[in-house]
Amino acid sequence: MAEASRIFQTTLMPSLSQTLSLRKHCSHQTVSIRRTSPAIIRCTISTTSSDTSRASTAPQPIPWGCEMDSVENAAALQKWLTSSGLPPQKMDIQTVDVGERGLVANNNIRKGEKLLFVPPSLVISANSEWSFPEAGEVLKRYNVPDWPLIATYLISEASLMESSRWSNYISALPRQPYSLLYWTRAELDRYLEASQIRERAIERINNVTGTYNDLRARIFSKHPNLFPEEVFNMESFKWSFGILFSRLVRLPSLDGRVALVPWADMLNHSCDVETFLDYDKSTKGVVFTTDRPYQPGEQVFISYGRKSNGELLLSYGFVPTEGTNPRDSVELPLSIKKTDKCYVQKVEALKKHGLSASQCYPLQVTGWPLELIAYAYLAVSPPSMSGKFEEMASAASNKNRNNKEIRYPELEEQALQLVLDCCESSISKYTKFLQASGSMDLDITSPKQLNRKVFLKQLAVDLCNSEQRILFRAQYILRRKLRDMRRGELKALKLFDGVRNFFK
Ligand SMILES: C[S@@+](CC[C@H](N)C(=O)[O-])C[C@H]1O[C@@H](n2cnc3c(N)ncnc32)[C@H](O)[C@@H]1O
Question: Any idea which positions bind substrate (predicted)?
């Protein structure tokens, strides 16, 4: 699935030719959409804006889509896709153990076999035709990038209910995608306090809010007939961005353009699998190639990318079972102390390379990046080494693709000790959360809320356990290295003393 941070211009080519006239305004809670024919479709839209600061506020549901586990809507989707040109499939949508709904083999599938073949006409991209062409034209005139363009497109089509060509697809989408976008600020603070993923979630929520506010100020408010606030509001944008974060696909063969690919987006992720969706120029469809055989009845998986557990929680709302994700990592924060005599010089050197006084680096069970140690060298280096600050800051930046390992034996011990201290400080935050989570008051006022809170807390506990496990591993390695280093120094010292005594 697509990296959220990238914004692509897409030229996939689905086309549809529905001629719907201007969207009409409607009463306070009801949106009326008038076509050229006299039929009027009404749908109730929540106008409640989200209040992320209130812990007990359950997010408002959207009036389209379905419950995450609805196989009825998914079966209707499969039927519609088949009648719309999806070739016969070796998989069916079913209720599954991993991911609630997923694609299950209905035939023997060989390793190395191409599957899916979703044609471009069944793909939603930035070039898809709008049921309200005027709305699409306005957004393109303003050069709205692909992500917000597709998000707006999805809301526009969803609000048309059965009149949209995509109605069967949208009805099978989750009404409330699982992702950290749906956690309130209080839930993030409470459950993810120890993890750096909390910052990423807040940043993402702010980006979505900022994008919506920008679209509203620059475009929607100037074209209220095309973009009525009853439909295009913060709540509907949270939904559409939640759908994009959890389902949008980046297609490397089409220069990394992004698209929603109905049917393909029913595939769940497995950390074991190394196969990705892409556009196949020879068959002119979205496919993936299996990296293992499947027997009838087995769930078929793809990879959503080489992501850590935190990143999977952030975009997709799940945490893989502990120890099963070889790409798992934890962000370790390092910083230059304000009391450092060379604070200003060090921060200036870092700024030159796009870094700041506080930086996070990913730790994996298999080790840590060279950049982290370079940052640690800079953080511990004394004023006498100011001539080396620039070199250290450059090596600490992962923007510098040709990074070579830099070594300062005289700083090695202090640098490793700093990394160890940071690990231990993080470990204690996780320990505090995990110990408290057992007795955490869930602040429940209804059974529905109980399910939600228990669910979120469990996700947070799973994430914290997996991140803490990596930190424990790093702690073990660092302690051993430091011990060996100090033993070596001691030996050298003893040897030196021995030689000195000999000459006495
Ligand atoms: C692209 S959709 C896959 C289809 C989805 N299961 C559905 O029914 O619509 C991505 C969503 O599926 C679920 N999912 C995918 N892989 C999963 C996994 N390994 N474990 C748990 N949930 C998973 C998550 O809810 C995620 O947000």
Answer: 247, 265, 279, 304, 316
Q: What are phi and psi of 331, to 5 degrees?
A: -85, 125
Q: Which residues are annotated as a binding site for substrate?
A: 247, 265, 279, 304, 316
Q: Is this complex's ipTM strictly greater than 0.85?
A: yes
Rounded to two decimals, what is the model's pTM? 0.86
> Domains of the chain, with CATH numbers?
30-316 (3.90.1410.10), 330-495 (3.90.1420.10)
Distance CA 479, CA 315 (A): 34
- Tokens 């299996």 identify what position? 290
- 443-496, pLDDT tens digit by residue? 656 666 778 888 999 999 999 999 999 999 999 999 999 999 998 877 776 766
Residue 178 Cα to ligand 1 middle (Å): 8
> How far away, in angstroms, is 269 Cα from ligand 1 center?
7
268 lines ligand 1 (CB under 6 A): yes
pLDDT reported for residue 58:
47
Helix axes 133-141, 146-159, angle to 10 degrees: 160
The answer for residues whose C-beta is within 8 angstroms of residue 207's C-beta and 6 or more apart is: none
Position 289 confidence tier, pLDDT thresholds 50, 70, 90: very high
Q: Residue 450 has what pLDDT?
A: 72
